[in-house]
Amino acid sequence: MRTSIAAGLLALLAAPLATSAPDRKAFDDALLHYTTRGFSGSVLIARKGEVLISGGYGFADFAANRPNDANTLFEIASITKSFTATAVVKLAQQGALGLDDSIADRLPGVPAHSRKITLRHLLSHTSGIPRSQGAGRGEDLQQAVIAYLGAGPTSTPGSKYEYWNGGYALLAGVIERASGGSYTAYLERELFAPAGMNDTGFTGDADLGTDRDAVGSAYQGEDRRALEHPYSSYGYQYRGMGGIVTSVADLLKWDRVLADGQLLDADHRKELFEPIQDGYALGWRIARAVNGTPSQSHAGSVRGFVSEFRRYPAEGCCIALLCNRGDQNLGEIADNLESLLFHRPLPIPLPKNEILTSEQSAACAGTFQSSAGSVVIRAAPGVLVAGIEGQKLLDQLGVSEKLAWKADAVELSSRAVEIVQAIAKDDPEPLRKHMTKRIAAGLPETTIRSTWPEQLAAHGAFKSVAAVGSLARRGRLEVLLSLEHERGPAHVLIAFSAEGLELLQWKGPEFLSVARLEPQGRNNFLLPVGPTPCKLDFEFQKGSAVTLRLAGLKFSRE
To answer: Which CATH architecture has domain 358-395+514-557?
Structure first.
């Protein structure tokens, strides 16, 4: 069940906790500060299983108007390594392998130059293989072994720490051969199930449900959903090193099952968390928390997602921090949360900016209309996001860039409509005629044969199409189309360069221009669109009436 941050806090107020009430507000205030700077994600902090704060900030999926919460699913990238390492140690406990076995005893096709590398070396990143060696991929384990090991170690195995993703792909293969099944099946059976982690799986899993996974905003590359593969499939190019999809609520269960000895006995837990080189143990980084006691942690980063998970075994505490914006510094956020948890001064002072409470943001949500167009305000805990509708309003806000070529927006918008109308009649010729040579020659046939039928299956019978606006951006003119279908509207984005059609995006955005509002005062914001941010103010009247002022225009809420 989804739980808002506000509801979560109300529940916490009624529960006996192992921390004082001001701590909960301090956590929330700190996270709201970071939300104004771009943080979007879910957070859980607990002590001995008692939740101190749990919930979400920002949007899991802006297009679906779905905020983040404690059960939102994120891809956790390299935190997966801590699970892979625990699985290997579990197999050692079961007698299926030894941690000091040569990888040649556990993997096929290991060249002579790499036979002194042990499983422990792979687990601790001390194999001697340089981190740049990452050519393995696909489903053939022997080919992946040969590709990853390359010319062999450049330093004596065990003598030097060098973080190497490829070693964990090989460990996924070790798990498969030792267990007699797939990597994913072993983790699900031996780790997730005992922990009760029912909302945890892997990229590509259909049973977790795309109505709960977050959409990751990438600072490089295209945005992606948490359940989408970042590297085309879950082959050895990513298996073992990343790819687990989970929630902060399930990470608390992971913390508890590691603590209670249900997975590993005391001796094997000691091996898992014993530092080998440079503070890295077996899939875990070992350090000292701000209060001087040990911490066990791992971070992760992949297109659209960053993550941080920290455990404090002496106090039974954990911090789970999952984010669906790839440009955020979670280390800084986690350091401050750790300091608040242990009542220490913040190592990085919080910015002196305005914060937006969940109640304030909820009061501002809605669709605001004017003669020039509409501003759709959507609210999630700690954040407001505005979507701009209407060509006149886009032009007045100066959102479009200057193009190096002369673009006739009216003509190109008509061309985009013509292309979709033709596709709806199984006619690929207008698309073929207008697309650039950089687009695959087979696109028109693929669109008619599979893409358009998929569109109809998802949205129902096609009724009509209309251009709702255009915008010059990234050297192209982008035209947004609204398609009316039997089961509701859909959006398609078509972009033109001077040479012709460059992009045909069937899952187009709802708005051509979207921006987070930057709080300046209680009801005063900046809307960062165009060359200069615009002032945006809310005015509250008696009752529930709210008006919005932007660019000299007054907007009334529907």
So the answer is: Beta Barrel (2.40)
